């Protein structure tokens, strides 16, 4: 199963970032329900702008790290295959 070009292992590795997304979602819901600063334009832009920018940054960094993990794991697997191939070739000679 590949989601957005990521393998299952990469998705599992980055699933720890669901906790910060949950915290950000909690604050969004809290600010919508409670609105401690009222419904002014400036407080709303400040609160949702900060929380939204943190969520966007976290999503971007998580995606970049997942792609990098996938590349590194692929390189390691390729190196293991090559090592097994050279060991098998050495034994046949």
Structural description of this entry:
- The protein is mainly α.
- Helix 1 packs across helix 3 and helix 2 runs antiparallel to helix 3 (about 40-90).
- The chain is built from three helices and no strands.
- The longest helix is centred in the C-terminal third of the chain and has 52 residues, at about 40-90.
- Helices cover about 80% and strands about 0% of the residues.
- It starts with 7 loop residues before the first helix and ends with a helix.
What is the chain-wise order of helices and strands? HHH
Low-confidence stretches: none
Largest sheet: none
Please tally the helical runs, counting DSSP H or I stretches of 4 or more residues: 3
Average pLDDT, to the nearest integer?
A: 78
Total beta-strand segments: 0
Radius of gyration: 22 Å
Our estimate of the beta-strand percent is under 5%
| Secondary-structure class | mainly alpha
Overall 3D form: rod-shaped
Distance between the amino and carboxyl termini: 40 Å
Helix proportion range:
over 70%
